[in-house]
Amino acid sequence: MTDPTTPTLPNWVQAELQRAPQAAAQGAVRAGAHLQATAARYDARHKRVVVELANGSQFAFPPALAQGLEHARAADLAVIEISPLGTGLHWPRLDADLSVEGLLAGLFGSRAWMRQHAARAGRSTSPAKAEAARTNGAKGGRPRKATA
């Protein structure tokens, strides 16, 4: 028999409470699948930011590629904070923030930053690029655009 002084919960609340353990387990699996930083440091010798992940792997990138870090001094790069969930990196002396997932995807800044960086990379010259241009030119160069 039920106690008349104890309030009864609606059925939908009881159903949600019964699913709570399953939801907690799913949340733990999803959290484990996300890329979480556990440590980050600036390696001045190799001029790289090194990030260690919760899955045991690590990656490094040159700060010159990253928006907000491109002109930073080594002392400023050395102070790195990791967000509470491990999904972001913050340089307090530079007021710069980057996401771990974005860095692993090759995104080192905003779309405008990436566009500008790609344009700079396209303007770079090298002996191999010059030779490829000469070879292409000997073949008649770039095909003309078709006019309607």
Blueprint of the fold:
Layout: H1 11-33, E1 37-43, E2 48-53, E3 58-61, H2 74-77, E4 81-82, E5 88-91, E6 96-99, H3 100-104, H4 111-123, H5 127-138
Antiparallel strand pairs: 1-2, 2-3, 4-5, 5-6
Q: How would you characterize the overall build of this protein?
A:
By secondary structure, the chain is of the alpha+beta class. It has a domain at 37-122: NE0471 N-terminal domain-like, CATH 3.30.2020. The chain is 39% helix and 18% strand. The chain contains 5 helices and 6 strands; from the N terminus they run αβββαβββααα. It has a 3-stranded antiparallel beta sheet with strand order 1-2-3. A 3-stranded antiparallel beta sheet has the order 4-5-6. β1 and β2 (48-53) form a beta hairpin. The N and C termini lie far apart (86 Å).
Instruction: Indicate the proportion of strand residues.
Output: 15-25%
Q: Kindly state the mean pLDDT as a whole number?
A: 81
**N-to-C SSE string, H for helix and E for strand:** HEEEHEEEHHH
Q: Helix proportion of residues, in percent?
A: 25-40%
CA radius of gyration is: 26 Å
Specify the biggest β-sheet. Answer: 3 strands, antiparallel
CATH topology of the domain at 37-122: NE0471 N-terminal domain-like
Number of strands: 6
Uncertain spans, ≥5 residues at pLDDT below 50?
A: none
Distance between the termini: 86 Å
Q: Output the structural class.
A: alpha+beta
Strand order of the largest sheet: 1-2-3
Supply the CATH architecture of the domain at 37-122.
2-Layer Sandwich
* Outline: elongated
Total number of helices: 5
CATH class of the domain at 37-122: Alpha Beta
The CATH homologous superfamily of the domain at 37-122 is named Uncharacterised protein PF10387, DUF2442
